[in-house]
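Batch manifest, entry 17 of 40.
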Amino acid sequence: MQKQALIVGISGVIGRALAEKLLREGWQVTGLSRGRGAVPEGCHSLTADLTDAVAVRQALAGVKPDAVFFSVWARQANEKENIRVNGAMVRNVIEALGERLHGAHVALVTGLKHYLGPFEAYGKGAVPVTPFREEQGRQPVDNFYYAQEDEIFAGAEKYGYRWSVHRPHTIIGYALGNAMNMGQTLAVYATLCREKGWPFIFPGSPEQWHGVSDVTDAGLLAEQLVWAATAPTAANQDFNAVNGDVFRWNWLWPRLAAYFGIEAADYPPQMMPLEGRMQAATDAWREIAQRDGLREADIDKLVSWWHTDADLGRPMEAFTDMSKSRKAGFIGYQSTLDAFVQLFEKLKAERVIP
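Output type: structure tokens
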């Protein structure tokens, strides 16, 4: 029989790549979201406010998935609110499905803030030694990732499903209107620098500029998620999920610049975050979009200055070890430079950038 997948957060960078992967492999895919973004063609779309338990229960009536994939969060004013809201979203879906989850697989996507702590707690705890390993456990700080994990664990005890947790680094993939979209933000930034003659300055910290880093291609993460849904060795395990190569931004930045036909600026004397110097970007992008017939003239629907600043502004080196995943049988790999180039080519083909 055809396997049934439920993706919670299907319109995001991860959800879209996962849906496309599952469809290629013959799954029937249902997506549950707030309805703010487009759902990949071929998927059945359900819409609900995930914080509303009654609405979620009504939306999922009759759905009996073989696998559920959570890739969803809603940014709140502080981490205590993040915990309350984002934990409830996971719990509401699990409770709505209830006994229909018996024997199924439930996967949760979190990220490296598992090791680093949330944005508001960066540098306040003892950051584990790099590369981060799953055995290093949790930081002693409030973190909505932990709350979501706890909901997954409690549901497994109650309803008898197997689970997996996946921790990517920065996601590189295609999805419009998504807050966690550094690749697209950098593509828009580089385009503005080329068109307006602005310097292509790395907006992050010296630690990120000089330190070792890694990222996660959305397609690679989708591959790991689908593997974990069926592999016996992946049951009830947590896994890092990165491309498999490492780099330094002082190596990658000039190569991204070269793709757009511009020069990479030297690292500045002090950090120069994007959010503080992109005031002219709104009008500049509108002009470019109108001139070249791009599909979106509102730059706020394309970029996430704040999130890219936070990602690249970390005051510590951040990269992960993939040994646990490899030993369990997942051997996927993606070149990071290729991942960026493939995204940029997709953005051109979709008329998002000129």
